[in-house]
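This entry is retained here.
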Amino acid sequence: MSTTSRTTLLILDCYTVEPSGLGVPPYLSTYARAAYGALRTAQPRARVAYLTIDDVRWCLNGGRPYEQPPLSDRLTYSATTNREDALRLLGDAALTVVIAGDAVPSVHLQAQNGSVEEIARALACTRGRRVLLGPLASYALADPAGYGGLFDAVHTHTLTSADLTSGTRQAAPYERLAADRVDYRDLIDQLRWTPVAEIELYRGCTRRRFCDFCNEPVKAPTVDFRPVEDVLAEVAILHAAGVRHFRLGQQTCFFSYMNRDAGAIEKLLAGIREAAAPDLVTLHIDNADPLAVASPSGAKIARLVASYCTEGNCAPMGIESFDVEVIKRNTLTCTPDILFRAVEHVNQAGAHVGPGGLSVLLPGLNLIYGLPGETHRTHYENLAGLARILDAGLLCHRINVRQVRAYPGTPLAAIQAQEPLPSAEHFTSWKADIDHIFDQPMKQRVYPTGRKITDLHSFFVTNRGTWHRRLGSYPIQVVERDTARPLYDSADMTITGHAPRYVYGERNGSPAGA
């Protein structure tokens, strides 16, 4: 590509949500950083602009949000410094890299993934070449007629300066991605939010048998670990760019890094805290295979995480189902007894409360409904398994209950093509059962009334009030009722009440509603 003139290259981030990683603000995904490095390396003199789908929505809605202030608007919340110029940038860019995830947008409190229709509308403004990066590429390859004409090239996993416009179906070697790594200060400066950098430790799954629904073995059939030194180098560059919040989350299981090598994991965590990012604010993990956590080495690794990482940390573990028949039918491999032992190991390491009022490290639980073999008994077994955790006095950070999605190329997708998955008609009521039978009582246990939590910031306003949190892995959200605080307003709060998905609080020293 020519470098003789000042060219505009563009990243349009429509967000990604995967079992092994998040790319929804405030998370800054591995995809966004790889695209930025590839473009900067390919054309060092070009301007590389970063947009979000929220910027485009703002412009297409006449330069205004869809919700009236002081309420926050999830569709335009994650704007960049380029918001007012979004349509002009789309028109001027010689090349636009679209980062996109699932074909069906997921909805979060402060964000909504770009839909295929929104992406098509945005690309109608472009004149340059259009490249797709991320999980949506698998859907585009599976349905070429449905995505015909939208993209000139698609990349399913990674993007480098050597293959920008050619398209790729396999992930580039980590050494190749490292060669494109650049100073990220300009990218960070284009954000209007404080980012959490999602850090990838490896690809693939270390289990011998793979869960039928998971797309990670499709993305990476074999396990490929990043050297500790490569991870530390990336963290150091991000730290130099001003990033202070990190999550080791873009992999199937943190505990399985380097095949559960506690020595390598301690070298990684110590290297981040002592050298790569010595004044970080947040260091969290994501994704923990209960089989690894339940092992003797898992107990040791949990203690390392509790020692080196910051409080409020979560190790989410996928039991997926407590029903033995569903476990067998879908090759899930984790049994209720294994999960229980894993939950015990994490509690023993990190259930104690840190100086800011949050437990240092707690397990999270993931349940999936709609898997083949599911019956009404499945829900009973799930409730019984969760009751066992409650009755044992153990703590859990959160539970994620969702319906299954059949990703292209997975065994579940092949099953779905031959037989319909179980009906979703009961999902809403079953999820409500779990909310009130397990999640809300657990919130009361983990965040008792009167507990003081420090260093929160306001980040969203709804009809319920102002929502507060810290940055990190699935942070607890504290709702200050009937208020509309300015965004990013700092607060120390005292817990006053509980809901299944969040808690209520009052500012220390302030009456409710003040």
Observations:
- The two ends are 58 Å apart (CA to CA).
